[in-house]
Amino acid sequence: MAITNVLVANRGEIARRVFATCRRMGIGTTAVYSDADAAAPHVSEADAAIRLPGNTPAETYLRGELIIEAALAAGADAIHPGYGFLSENAEFARSVLDSGLVWIGPPVAAIEQMGSKVESKKMMDAAGVPVLAELDPAEVTEAHLPVLIKASAGGGGRGMRVVRELGDLQDQIAAAQREAESAFGDPTVFCERYLETGRHIEVQVMSDTFGKTWAVGERECSIQRRHQKVVEEAPSPLVEKIDGMRDRLFEAARLAAEAIGYEGAGTVEFLADEKGDFFFLEMNTRLQVEHPVTEQTTGLDLVRLQLQVASGLPLPATQPAQRGHSIEVRLYAEDPAHDWQPQSGPVHKIEIPFSAGEFTVLEQPGVRLDTGVVDGSVVGVHYDPMLAKVISYAETRAEAAHLLATALQRSKLHGLVTNRDLLVRVLRHPAFLAGDTDTAFFATHDLTVLSAPLVSEADEALSIVAAALADSAANHAANRFGRLAPSGWRNLASEPQRKSYESRTSGTHEVRYRFDRSGAVTVEGHDGLELISAKPDRVVLAVPGERGPVRRQFEIARYDDLVAVDSPLGPVAVRRLPRFTDPSEQVAAGSLLAPMPGSVIRLGAAEGDQVTQGQPILWLEAMKMEHTIVAPATGVLSALNVTVGQQVEVGTVLAVVEEEEQEPS
């Protein structure tokens, strides 16, 4: 059956990714969108778009009946589920087929068999695929610890918890069940033995309806946070160095696919050790987030193959050979230095240099960008905070890592705190470059160091000077005289001009500078600094060095009080401080501020309670994850300003802890 119009039952980056291939194939596109996504790029790019009333996944993207109604209303004849949401929901796939639409995914029976991770492991064991032993949560003992709680119906780190103390098991199971219900509509969880270190290796499979299965290539996704992948690459450094491991992996993946009569694109995931032994984790019966690295190292468009298989066409006669190396990083709106706190708000600018294509398989070395946001997009609290996938492709792994790190460092990312600095430091880390990565990477290597700003303190200070001079130029440009040098003649030297800025990582910076009548500038604390030119959006400085002055160029952008400075020295973002502060804006000492917008789902203490430092006070749900807000010090909970179910904005004062006074020694 020829497919003429595809509805993507998803949002953001994956919806745009599928639409891109559809356009290249001359296939029409239909989007669905929640109220929160009304202005999202995937909506405007589709030929037709249908509203799903509401904001949360449960109200919108998890409502299969509404999505099918949207497809029929728009005249779509096929549904692509993307990843997450309903992509591995067998009932949804069955309903799509029952409605007369084409399901761009595997058979319903295959989804059902792999949908229960408990039953799927039994089936894989019977098929001869190595597996880890399953544990019934009710039967876990001290001898089994540590254990990993996992959601049976989905992945992506949702519903996952590591338990090392038996007394924590029931609370962690309950929390995992809540996350699984929120993310997948199914609270079922299970346990398995947790391996503290290991290599996460997965094999991309592609099967047609004629019995042919390709093991397209393997990927390594060992660097993870909260059991969610952060860096992915193909081929795997571990597999590359162990003779025969690739053949054994591919054989196990084919056995897994053939055991369930698989069709379409899927991924068989394994946990491997340094010796090359591996165990089946799960099979994802859908396209993976990290599929671009396989596309880059094979030249295949996996979405195109999905559409062809769903149309009843066979796979090509010859499977392509692997080529070069590709690395993908997930660029998140989150703060790794503060427990990976997700961020929300406007994306003022996202510009990745060296980008040779978007949602496109590159034929030459370069950078590919797959993103769900554009300049002006707003990241909300209802969905995953991934901004983009940035993918490099090169002949060698070292070249791919260098290219990607440089592109990220020089990217213009204005508006939100992101994990960009961490990604660059990982890509340049000696352990990563040596291929020495495992699932404990962030526990093994100092996260404080990895998440530190890319720019040095001295270079940050210089960038802030550039910001002050650009602000001065902007002020003078707004003046009808438009002169940078101060007007009027003075017999005495003028007082220095002052501008103050707040850096998220280094605190307050005051820039004190003075122009002379020629326009030359003197900046306190920066002897020998020469101003070459200053415009509102660009400043050029000659910086003194051991072998003479070095010219540095800085690009400046402003968004209300936010000032973003980009240069080869590294990115800097600061906020302009007003000359005078409003006392009403001050918060009391001991205040617990909401780190992100979210919903209060539990309270751990009552007003007037004695609390200890680190004790949970309340829990917020944001972006499908739970976040614990703890007491900053030991004392009395003198104020509790929220109730269960209340929505709060970032910066809201949730509670106040009055710290106990220390007895004099």
List keywords for this structure.
Dna Ligase, domain 1; D-amino Acid Aminotransferase, Chain A, domain 1; 5 domains; single chain; 17 helices; Rossmann fold; 665 residues; nine-stranded mixed β-sheet; alpha+beta; 40 strands; eight-stranded antiparallel β-sheet
Fold and architecture overview:
- There is one protein chain.
- The protein is of the alpha+beta class.
- The chain has 5 domains: 5-104, Rossmann fold (3-Layer(aba) Sandwich), CATH 3.40.50; 133-193, 2-Layer Sandwich (Dna Ligase, domain 1), CATH 3.30.1490.20; 324-452, D-amino Acid Aminotransferase, Chain A, domain 1 (2-Layer Sandwich), CATH 3.30.470.20; 457-486 and 495-576, Glycoprotein, Type 4 Pilin, CATH 3.30.700; 583-659, RNA polymerase II/Efflux pump adaptor protein, barrel-sandwich hybrid domain (OB fold (Dihydrolipoamide Acetyltransferase, E2P)), CATH 2.40.50.
- It has 17 helices and 40 strands.
- The strands form 9 sheets. It has a 9-stranded mixed sheet, with helices on both faces.
- Strand 31 and strand 32 form a beta hairpin.
SSE arrangement:
Layout: E1 5-8, H1 12-25, E2 28-34, H2 41-45, E3 48-52, H3 64-74, E4 78-80, H4 90-98, E5 102-103, H5 108-115, H6 117-126, E6 134-135, E7 147-151, E8 161-163, H7 169-184, E9 189-193, E10 199-207, E11 213-225, E12 228-234, H8 237-241, H9 245-259, E13 264-272, E14 278-284, H10 291-298, H11 302-310, E15 325-332, E16 334-335, E17 341-342, E18 345-346, E19 349-351, E20 355-358, E21 366-371, E22 378-379, E23 386-394, H12 397-409, E24 412-414, H13 420-427, H14 430-433, H15 441-444, H16 447-450, H17 457-478, E25 497-503, E26 507-515, E27 521-523, E28 530-535, E29 538-543, E30 550-559, E31 562-566, E32 572-576, E33 591-593, E34 598-603, E35 610-611, E36 616-622, E37 625-630, E38 635-640, E39 647-648, E40 653-659
Parallel strand pairs: 1-2, 1-4, 2-3, 4-5, 20-21
Antiparallel strand pairs: 6-9, 7-8, 7-9, 10-11, 10-13, 11-12, 12-15, 13-14, 15-23, 16-17, 18-22, 19-24, 21-23, 25-26, 25-32, 26-27, 28-29, 29-30, 30-31, 31-32, 33-40, 34-36, 34-39, 35-38, 36-37, 38-40
Helix pairs in contact: 4-5, 12-13
